[in-house]
Batch of 2 targets.
Target 1
Amino acid sequence: MRVREKGDRGVVQSVVLFLGVSVLSGALAAGLAIPFAGLAGFTTEKTTQTLQDLPQQFDEVPLKQKSTILAADGSLIATLAEQNRVPISLNKVAPIMQKAIVAIEDDRFYEHGALDAKGTLRALLQNHSEGTVQQGGSSITQQYVKISLVEKANTPEEVAAATADTYQRKVAELRYAIAVEKQYSKNEILEKYLNLANFGDGAWGIEAASLHYFSVHASQLTLPQAALLAGLVKNPTGYDPTNNMKRAKDRRDVVIRRMLELKVISLAQANAALRTPVINPAKVRPNKLGCANGPYPFYCEYIVSQLEDNKAFGKDRTSAANYLKTAGLTIRTSLDPKMQKAAQKSIDQHTKKGDQAIAAITIVEPGTGLVKAMVQSKPYGSKKGQTSYNYNVEKSYAGGYGGFQNGSTMKAFTIAAAIQKGFPLTYKINSPNSLPLGGKKWTTCTGHVTAEKGYTPGNSTTNVADPTMIQAAQRSTNTYFLQLSQQVGLCPIATIASKLGMYDAQSGDPLGQYPSMTLGVGYVTPLQLSNAYAAFAARGMYCKPWLVTSVKDAAGKAMSTPGADCKQVLAPEVADGVNEVLHMVMEPGGTGQHLKFGNSDLAGKTGTIQDAKAVWYAGYSSKLASAAVVADASPPYKRLVGQTLDGHDIGEASGSGTAGPLWETALQGALQGLPTTHFTKPSDKTMRGDVKDLPFVNGMNPDDAANKLRQAGFDVEIASGTVNSEETAGTVAYTSPRQRDGAPEGSKVTIFVSNGSKKNEPQNSPKPPQNTTKPPGGPITIDPNCPPWNPKYPKCGGGGHGPG
């Protein structure tokens, strides 16, 4: 018994010592939730020093608030948050909730200052008698301080220091609590506490917790609901009703009985509350945080990636990511749910889960760059048949796949470069089904490049032997565009492509300037290609992809964000010419004729890469532009033929037949409800080109003819072999382009030598088209006897051309 008495005296002495030191220091002792053994070695000097070193004011921690990403119509795309929290004022918290939290956590809250001395002593004695921590004597003010200090911590070490079971920390909390009590009223402290507290299962703050567990606002909480939430703050994980319903009920009932004991509620109210089920599982709202839990995860993650690269949100990606999750931003985006639904419908209609081939579609608005839709066939996730790759965007974004070779969709940029250089839309080049180009040179921005020995490309479609630019585009004639790119030069093509946002989506480098550039080069994405084609639709106005249209801070104040970034990179007349050529691709005789729909003018281009490992269709109206790709995205890459799409083996892979239906269904749905539009008709000058008259050289010695043509400002080549002609054998039979058509200054003119035959035209050469009126939707016709555009022929008409 003697030993016990000595121990009791030690307890009393320790308590008196600690309280005395605190009082002498101008404070009251903190409620301590640690065993008495912690008092050993805690001296008056340490206590006094701790209190004197602390500031007299408590700097409030900014609440970590969730940010929301919204679609263009305001619907939710995703919630970004470290803590799911919706701050509210105390007058929006049900009075019964305020009473419940005070009853269980600090029933004398409105009576004491920063410290409840009675509660502290009770906790100290209880903990000592049990030998472990059983009760906490902390006031609500002290709890608010502790949570705030944890919230301020930025490293694991700072968190550990803010939660350490030491008397020094408790005394520090007390000093801060005293400052808080001086700065704020009791109601203000309670409001801050309820907004800051963790209520379990990802719900931080009373409003988020009310919505999460009960699907009601905090202002609508009932007694049993309030009692459950009040009980959670002591152990948010242990008493979480979604984890353990029985423990949650036991804890809730403790709160109800405590409220009855304090006469906060009546016996009848208590009994009714005790009989109420803890939660209705059907009303529990999952805390779906992050892009992965939203309806458009790929688009959302691309948005987040763009924001994390914005220096306005942080000095680096880590800082920006933290800011986005804690700043309570409202981020409005370009995504149009209606158009996204139309694009998704196309994916659902033309693909199946388990397909080996992948499909992706992006839709962009010409003239603004607004990215309206972004879909793909493989769903988001890490399970079999899912992917975290976004097949629509560049590799520089962490989840970006980095594109696919784009095939003949590249010909659109060759067309633009040719028109810009003055080539007429009727420009003809003899284009055999195969063409030996080994050793031939193409000029580049830095010099020239030579085709490898034996390079003999061919056409993959039925060909016109001597096509115009429009006819070659309609049939995607490879040998025509290879020769056209040689005459135009690769630098103008590369320059236009670059100005329209085309670059290698794998490396970020400019597209390579190779002899085969016009047939596809590098890796590009549906986003890049749709946005580039959108510039043609916008008559040469290129706009960078625009995804984030506005950002507001937690107070609703607009933050500075980039708007539409548009620049006129092509003359409108050049874009009009491109639109005319690509429009005819979707008219009878074109590879895209079966994809035409509606009354608006449409333009498009197919693309198939070597071995058909990827196929494309890119097209547009004046309102929307889109690109669709079907490809093998699983290395080692194989031909699409034999792979599955829409649950069936692909028998023949083509831009029009495989990717085209995806594009058609998506764009048709997206355009539904929008007004009918037409392209601006190209000018007569654009149709006929900025050409010079060619000297008449038929019947001349080939070398003399070549010199005459060079003196007139043309590049000249004498074709090997001979052709049937009425001209004397060994003399010039004709040139390509023909003398009657003229040619742009500096372009190549090929001389064909006659073999003396009496035939008027070379073998397999079509007869010149007659001057006829073009029926609606029919191919373009030009009077071959009318000289090319030239001021001295002002009344020479441009012939008929397609609508719009």
Target 2
Amino acid sequence: MFVWVIVFNILLFVIFLYHRYPYFLQDVQYIINIFLVRYRLSKVREKNSTILDRFLESVKRHPNKPFILFEDESYSYLDADHQSNKVARVLLQHTDIKKGDIVAVFSGNQPFFLWIWLGLVKIGCSAAFLNNNMRSKSLLHCFSCSGANVLIAGEEFKEAVEEILPTLTEQNVTVFILADQCTTAGMESFTDKTSQASPEPIPADLRSNVTLLSPAVYIYTSGTTGLPKAAVLTHMKLQALSYRTFGVRFTDIFYLYLPLYHSAGFYAFIGSIERGSTIALRSKFSASHFWDDCRKFNVTVIQYIGETLRYLCNTPKKPNERSHRVRIAIGNGVRADVWREFLKRFGDISVKEVYASTEGNVGILNYAGKIGAVGRVNFLHKWIFPYAIIKYDIVREEPLRNSDGFCIKAKTGEAGLLVTQITQKAPFAGYARDLKQTEKKKLHDVFVKGDQYFNTGDLLWIDEENFIHFHDRIGDTFRWKGENVSTNEVSDILTMMPCVLEANVYGVTVPGHEGRAGMAAVRVKEGEQFDCTGTFRHVSSYLPAYARPRFIRIQDSLAVTGTFKHMKVRLVEEGFNPDGISDDLYLLDEKDKTYVPLTQMLYDSVLSGLIKL
């Protein structure tokens, strides 16, 4: 009888915990994972162990386990070791490369991309991953700011390299093309040389210079609001990434389709090494082939970023779309409505939404799975990696400070700037050869004299249940009619329209007006026409007057980065003048409650003040 009383009381306690603290078990599990990761990192520091060492351990433990699945080929851990040894030997024999040097990689997703990085680390060097969408001056800018003296480019990018070859030649840069032969003067073939090189192990003393604080790779920011900057990722930062917290196992197969030159794609590669798992690599994202690939490779873990899950939800429904083994989706930037639709269509997949940035020093994970949140406040995580959401003045583009000169924490439900403290455990390595931009990302004297925080550039807010939500980027939030407008929010509302496939919202300057007026570049669904009156009714129902887009621009396609972030700089510069824009433009007409074609006469009337915005 006494035993039953104890069992009954335990059940009552569990029920109480569940109702009072519904996320208690997830919180406890996350704390356990934090302890396990911190323990692993303490061992890493003791041994000065890099992710390469972890890879070499896997080669010894399971040499024949598939590491990279690409198209119809399978490469084991031992294959990857041998191929990267060959790359290292070619670089040592055919260049003047030495410890600490940087090699720029300009390639699409392919196994050789990975062999190159592993080979470079084996000889104590690092890589700069160039965005393969860059051309001409932008490409030269990215190459130059890396400090590299060797460039390895994919064969498909040969013409892009030839365009800047005269400058590279002047700078005595060694240029390789991933091909068996190359007849262009100033370029050398690469893959033929690796096929002849020895696969024998590279002596460890060649990387004796490498410490956990050494640069492992340079990855460029997207450049959505300016020229890209090369963020420095150290070996310690790569080791700090643990897919254990996402629930990834040794037996998992990770589907990697995002560009390897971006941190999201490269981190999937690093995370798979850390777990000792397998990667199914694809050259680029394809919504129509996505689930077929998952079935072909028996994928269990997928990644997403930005709009990719929405692209999947927009594909035609198929009877077998729930026929797959995927159990985890890791990424960031999925809207709540897309999240729900994704689960409804494709099954019970655990979505692990993350907040992080390439150069940032702290990441946040929504480990509890609340739809729409990017993270959850956990006392232990926040104690180890201090962060805060502070009040921010978007007009002056600076944090608000009190009479003592210190920043003010935002209230629950209030959007503010996320800042993360720069500490020994959470360092900020900055940008390569750009001290000015590195310092620009730091905030000083935030809460006490002498402290330093990393400025994420993002506005977030915390709800009543301690979940963290993304609001907008600082550059994307603009002010109109004395109010702050979130481009992210307006975009979400516009894409709820039946005729709208996607929308890119931004602010444009209007002479004689304070702030910036809302404008949206819109892509209409195939077979549909832009619904002027319906769109007006829709934005009027869901958005306050100041947030409704004053101008609409219809485009056949919206310019995005390699990770599907909308490009805004050019659109902002072009404004809303129909004389210089070939796309159809529309103006919000509050009198007739519709959007009307923006003619040159209407444009002139806006500028003269005859039409009030």
